[in-house]
């Protein structure tokens, strides 16, 4: 093979490389970005739909709460509808803790506290909790503490104390969280700790009767 043949094969190889490069560039420019933007559009659409279901569910839950004292049957029906909207929001965006919390609150109004606790657990899981602000996380921890005590599971007091301690650390103006923490300390026989948090509750709200009564009782026992 002479020198001209070598040049010919080299030119053909170079042309083949250029053609392949052009094809890959074409695929990159017209296929990959298209798929990416299609996925992005679908994701944004799903987020919008999830938010719409959440808002509808929140409105239904608000109606259920306002109706509860007058007509529990109607309130339960509204709460069930709120739960359904929460489920739709969760299906579209399972990492949104707010939708799981909405479902939990709707379940509470229906009397399903154990199921509500499961939903709160999901909201506070590593997958979802990042979507909550610190005050929102504090409220969720407080609600989980209430539910854990309500379902009376064995060994719950220690985990309730953990939730409440973190809740008041993140949001230091929840008088009910301080009071509930004091009540848990009393159950554990930690009277000094209970007295301390009852006093903190009264600093936030001096006329909060449950904390005042608990503190007076502890003082009379000492």
UniProtKB/TrEMBL annotation:
Does the keyword section mention Membrane?
Answer: yes
Question: Where is the chain membrane-spanning?
Answer: 12-32
Keyword terms, alphabetized = Membrane, Repeat, TPR repeat, Transmembrane, Transmembrane helix
Q: Which domain of life is it from?
A: Eukaryota
Q: Where are the TPR repeats?
A: 175-208
This chain's protein is named Uncharacterized protein LOC107778656
What organism is recorded for this protein? Nicotiana tabacum
The record lists the lineage as:
Eukaryota, Viridiplantae, Streptophyta, Embryophyta, Tracheophyta
């Amino acid at each position: 093979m002479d020198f001209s043949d070598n040049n010919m094969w080299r030119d053909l190889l170079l042309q083949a490389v250029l053609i392949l490069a052009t094809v890959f560039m074409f695929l990159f420019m017209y296929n990959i970005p298209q798929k990416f933007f299609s996925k992005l559009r679908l994701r944004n659409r799903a987020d919008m739909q999830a938010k719409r279901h959440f808002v509808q569910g929140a409105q239904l839950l608000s109606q259920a709460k306002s109706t509860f004292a007058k007509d529990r049957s109607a309130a339960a029906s509204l709460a069930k509808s709120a739960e359904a909207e929460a489920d739709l929001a969760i299906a579209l965006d399972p990492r949104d803790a707010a939708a799981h919390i909405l479902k939990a609150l709707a379940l509470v109004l229906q009397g399903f506290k154990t199921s509500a606790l499961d939903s709160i657990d999901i909201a506070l899981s590593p997958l979802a909790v990042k979507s909550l602000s610190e005050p929102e996380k504090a409220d969720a921890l407080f609600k989980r503490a209430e539910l854990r005590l309500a379902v009376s599971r064995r060994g719950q007091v220690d985990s309730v104390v953990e939730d409440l301690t973190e809740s008041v650390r993140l949001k230091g103006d929840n008088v009910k969280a301080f009071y509930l923490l004091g009540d848990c300390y009393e159950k554990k026989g930690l009277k000094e700790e209970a007295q301390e948090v009852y006093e903190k509750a009264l600093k936030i709200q001096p006329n909060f009767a449950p904390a005042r009564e608990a503190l007076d009782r502890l003082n009379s026992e000492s």
